[in-house]
């Protein structure tokens, strides 16, 4: 076995790097999840969620990945055959649509070209056309991790209000919670869906639903089987600090610590750091003379940047060079972007040097892989970071 020297750079757009203090918290001995210490832990976590994100709605945590949290949102509040409006922003929008189809929902899937955000005018038009209010839910991926495009959820809410449509607003915040400004309360999101392994800086394993009163009312009449995902036993047990079935105890230790870290940095500063890193990465890409998958200046994600490779270049070859030569993991192109694009993750526990180190690895890999670039993108990013 050859020795790998130095630390590995995990720069995929999730799972993100887990801070050492979070790893140490996870390493504690497992405790009785029906005992007093766990009861305090649950209460502390739920309180911190509220303090940081101002949800003012119940936060339901599942031992699951983000896909489980998608399933939970749909199966709680909808019935077989219910109409759902969703938008093809990229790979994750497609996967969510597939789950909805599998659950027996009737999806109106608005086609998209994977380079643009959801157009709120289109949302309004489609909802106005639905005069009988057959559409029960609008599904929005806030940060499309496969393309690096951020949709303005506030504008989608305004469009729904303008159309005076009563559908639920379900938002996938899997890769945005804890990294991009997110306003569950202000945008009147009915179900916020998220996961532990991105902005929350934990390993994969916790799926999240934040549930409005309106969504809970819908759930009372929802006829899809709720089974494992039923919100109500969760919300009821959580009030006493417990869970209806075994929670991911050790990840919960880590979650409390991760929330402590966000509180000590402050959520505003977390957002600002992601904004700086997104801007610096884009500056490097521009200086290299490469294209981002995102075509809209106002919708670039500050969590991940997807780079299109020129024709004839296999993006996975560049990722392979970066990994083999420089020990940096970059995100693969997903779905229709497979081999055509790769992604730089800049989310979670990432500082300026980790970012510039990553960009250096990318610039060298591009050069070795004979991608025709202008050199010096890293210097441009460094100057951007130095300036504040
Ligand atoms: C935006 C988005 N939604 C949903 C998912 C699915 O989450 P998971 O892979 O944890 O099931 C991901 C995963 O990367 C994601 O980025």
Provide a short characterization of the protein structure:
A seven-stranded mixed β-sheet has the order 2-10-9-8-5-3-4, sandwiched between helices. The chain has a three-stranded antiparallel β-sheet with strand order 11-12-14. It is α/β, with parallel strands linked by helices.
Q: How does this model look, in words?
A:
This protein has 2 domains: 9-16 and 267-386, Alpha-Beta Complex (Aspartate Aminotransferase, domain 1); 20-264, Type I PLP-dependent aspartate aminotransferase-like (Major domain) (Aspartate Aminotransferase, domain 2). The protein is globular and about 60 Å long. The strands form 4 sheets. It has a 7-stranded mixed β-sheet, with helices on both faces. The protein has helices at 20-26, 36-53, 66-77, 91-102, 120-129, 153-162, 213-221, 231-239, 249-265, 267-288, 315-326, 352-368, 377-386; strands at 9-11, 59-63, 83-87, 106-110, 135-141, 143-144, 149-150, 168-172, 191-195, 206-211, 291-292, 304-308, 328-330, 341-345. It has 388 residues and is an alpha/beta fold. The termini are far apart. The longest helix is centred in the last third of the chain and has 22 residues, at 267-288. Bound molecules: pyridoxal-5'-phosphate (PLP). Pyridoxal-5'-phosphate binds at residues 14, 65-67, 92, 141, 145, 172, 174-175, 195, 204.
